[in-house]
Amino acid sequence: MKTAKKLSLALATAAMAIAPAPAFAGWKRITTEATDVGKGAFVVTPQTEWSRWSRRPAKRGEIWTQDGFGLNMMHFIGQVGDGDTLFKDRKKKERPMPKVRGDMLVTDLAELFEASFSIEYDVTQFDVRAMEPSKLGGHDAIKMTYEFALPNDALTRVGEARLAKVDGQVYLVNFIAPELHYFDQSIEEVHVIMDTLQLK
Amino acid sequence: MRYILAVAAALSMTLVTALPAHAQFGGLERTEVKEGYQIKAGEANILVFRPNVRVGAQTTGGMHEPNAEWTETAKANLIGAMQEMHGANGIELVMVPDQEGEMGDVVESYTALFGTVASAVLTHKMTYGNRLPTKKDRFDWTLGEGAAQLKELGGDYGLFFYTYDSYGSTGRKVIQGLALVLGGGFVPSGVHMGYAGLVDLNTGDLVWLNVDTSMGGDPRTVEGAQKRVAQLMEEFPLKAAGEPGEDPEGVVIVVPPATAEDGTLRPAGEESDLPATEATEEEDAE
Amino acid sequence: MRSLLATAGAFVALACAPAVQAGDKANRAEYPVFTGAYEPEDVDERGLWESFDEVERKVATSKDLIRDEGINQYMKDVLCRSVGDDRCNATRIYVVRNNAFNASMAPNGMMMVNSGLLLRMRNEAELASVLGHEFSHFEQRHSLQLFKRLRSGSDIASIVSVVVGVPLGAFFLLDVFSFNRDMEKEADVASADYLAASPYASRAAADIWVRLIDEDDARAEERKRRKRGRSTGWFASHPAPLARSEYLARATAEHADDGDYGFERYGETMDPYLLTFFEDQLQRNDFAASKFILDQMGGDQWRPIHYVMQGELYRKRGLPRDLVTAEEAYRTAIEAGSTRPEAWRGLGLTLMRARNREQGAEALATYLELAPDAPDAPMMQMMIKGS
């Protein structure tokens, strides 16, 4: 059996030299004014300033952070139609992303998110803490709170996702952070954003 | 992109190991200090959380060979040098022993959070091409107020540090020479990196972080460790003058502006070789 | 819905039952002579141990470990029964929640086993043979040998890197501790010896490796990619699975014992965890391989839990014809006496998606009766009302 790469990764001094620098891409300041997000999929008015990463997670998607992705990360992904994937399907042969289907129930959307998120970030442990009806920008939505772990990491990380289907298109807003301090630091603002944004 | 999160996690152990790429191109040396921050006056204890010290040799191929004896010696030397240095400033270093039970979890979690925070600072503040717009003009990362729980261990500050040394072997130095002769690529001989960070446990704020990917001083020797610690502690926050809650008293040293022998002022930054004069009753702004 | 924590309680009762010592098999072999737990000897080995001790400190705090005492004790028991008590105490086992089939052995005695491996074992004897295999990497100091070999190997790479200007040395580190073919074979043979001396059936070891490649074939077919074959990728560092099965079969035939498979014991111990481990596997959008795993696990003795898993497998893919299969699977599970609330949840959601809202709502109502505190209860109440 092969020794887990994780082990040697932890030992190796080379771990990061090999992984291409993760975030050497542009950043844009998001101010507290109404902002077009995801090529017009949303209009969002944050209460504080955020930084937007120039690489899109999806065709009509954006990722924001304030302190760095390991500390707070917010996804906006909108207008995902029948047959499309939530996150870009970058490696179809190695780790294909599940697709949205027209007949999915709202609970199926939550499961779709769970799988897509886990594949995108290589999360092997994902547990739902709560699932309840909610709103996203005034539309009926499902709200899922969850915890997850990253390989060889001593931090419990938690997230809240809300998903809605409007006119056959799926919309997702998701926020993740370490449970220690960082989740609570932002969650109130995240709730306001989820409640007040507009879906287009 | 999937590796972003995993990377953030991996970094908590091997923050500076992220940097060999930089190290090969001249090294990265960065310090961030919270503006105007000072260690409180009077008695100050700093908790030192399990320092991560790695020492080994580098083979001709660049592989790292861990060496347990070197690591042990270096760790003892570094801690000794650090205690000496801070002790001279009236700061006591408290080595936090391994904790059991609930406090064990608290220490583990905050150690991990520190690693994640430090790697965020490195990625998004110290790496200029990748600065977050929200962080361009500030250094305000924190572990949160919950970090105050750690004060129970007997200190008001938390210090985390890491050093990594891989000494070049003869074989590698030969190849290095060969590369120069042939005009080939750059083969770094030896890797010497370190970082250290200080957290104010009253607020949880990260008040100082120093990262250096090409450090001097051989921590396997006492003198080398002193040199290393001096570099590792570069721009460490100063201690506020006086006693807490009391008016400062005693002797305050005021250094007059440096003058050359003919009486003209020397340019700032140049050391004065005149003896300091003593003054009393006046508080030095420093 | 994951319910690892909920079921953990139930598990403790099982785990507390004394590990069944299978009645000694008729022709049990002797364990090879054990020289005693060793201490690291030269400078390389001390360095490796010390480094891995540090890695282990980190691993031990990791949130992706399964900390439940029951499953950890069980793993230890199985290893001890496999390699003998004097050997097993030199190691620590960590169970990692990860759907991939993997286990690893560090030079300092730290063993890591993925939950995905537990999902793929059919009985305790198979698990015992894998744990024995990993253990023998440790006993035979394979990491150290490899480290020394690589040290000279990467020196060549450095000369190459002078020319291209890229320090290849870094790349070697990633795979420093993946053992090579000869070592794998050596470990296989050693583990066959352990198994022969253990209460377990020696034959159990033979076809784990063939199943592994069959699983990947199924995956390759579904994803329309080239099959990895028997000599590339993951398998390059390992003996070809067919050859491996053959020599393992030969080795075990010599012992021709009538030992225990621990089939029921494995099933009872794993049952509370299987659904969680399988959901982790389903999350990878890996239908064909998941189906293969389930078929292998069930064999010709499907238990109610296997039908629940089958329901989840098809419901989550969710093609129109899958909904029919899923409904049938959940109903079979319930008829066969499954008390898992997930069976009703799955049935309800399947029916609703198939536009049979009334029956779907009934099934969901039963789910909530069985699991009133389920984390998704508010959502399911809404589904019932909205139907």
Automatic annotation (TrEMBL), chain A:
User: Which UniProt keywords are present, listed alphabetically?
Assistant: Signal
Tell me which domain of life the UniProt entry assigns to the organism this sequence originates from.
Bacteria
Signal peptide region: 1-25
- This one is known as Lipid/polyisoprenoid-binding YceI-like domain-containing protein
Give the originating organism. Qipengyuania polymorpha
TrEMBL record, chain B:
Q: Where is this region: Disordered?
A: 257-286
Stretch forming the signal peptide: 1-23
Organism's domain of life? Bacteria
Swiss-Prot/TrEMBL keywords: Signal
Q: What is this protein called?
A: Uncharacterized protein
From TrEMBL, chain C:
Q: Which UniProt keywords apply?
A: Hydrolase, Membrane, Metal-binding, Metalloprotease, Protease, Signal, Transmembrane, Transmembrane helix, Zinc
EC top class named in words: hydrolase
- Name the InterPro entries on file: Mito/Outer_Membr_Metalloprot (IPR051156), Peptidase_M48 (IPR001915), TPR-like_helical_dom_sf (IPR011990)
Q: Gene3D superfamilies attached here?
A: Metalloproteases ('zincins'), catalytic domain, Tetratricopeptide repeat domain
Check the UniProt entry and state the signal peptide residues, or none.
Answer: 1-22
Q: What is its EC number?
A: 3.4.24.-
Which CDD domains does the record cross-reference, listed alphabetically?
Answer: M48C_Oma1-like
Pfam families to which the protein is assigned, alphabetical: Peptidase_M48
Q: Which residues form a coiled coil?
A: none
Name of the protein in its database record: M48 family metalloprotease
Q: What species does this protein belong to?
A: Qipengyuania polymorpha
| Family stated for the protein in its record | Belongs to the peptidase M48 family.
Q: Which GO terms describe its molecular function?
A: metallopeptidase activity
